[in-house]
Design a protein that fits this description.
The protein is α+β, with helices and mostly antiparallel strands. Helix content is 17%, strand content 51%. The two termini are 20 Å apart.
Length: 88
């Protein structure tokens, strides 16, 4: 898998990993949180501020929330930028 198809979140990926494989955006977290979404179903990615430096990354498709993950606002912004660069 090419490095541009994978984003490690946090120091050494302790916050999880986003990666693209076989046309799907995958998220895996060391504590078992995961999702898998078909890339063509993703319309946009938004961030809601949750407070105390936290953000909720939301993946939207066809007006429906397909997945959401809470993380540091800094990493939520990086993930949003990375995902949007892959789906455009």
């Amino acid at each position: 898998m090419a490095n541009d198809q994978k984003l490690s979140i946090g120091f050494l990926g302790v916050g999880g990993k986003l990666f693209i494989k076989d046309g799907f955006l995958n998220f895996s977290h060391p504590y078992g949180k995961t999702f898998k979404i078909c890339i063509v179903d993703i319309d946009t990615v938004t961030i809601d501020t949750v407070g105390l430096g936290k953000g909720k990354l939301k993946i939207i498709g066809k007006g429906v929330e397909l997945a959401k993950v809470e993380m540091s606002i800094i990493w939520a912004n990086k993930c949003q930028k990375w995902i949007l660069s892959k789906i455009r």
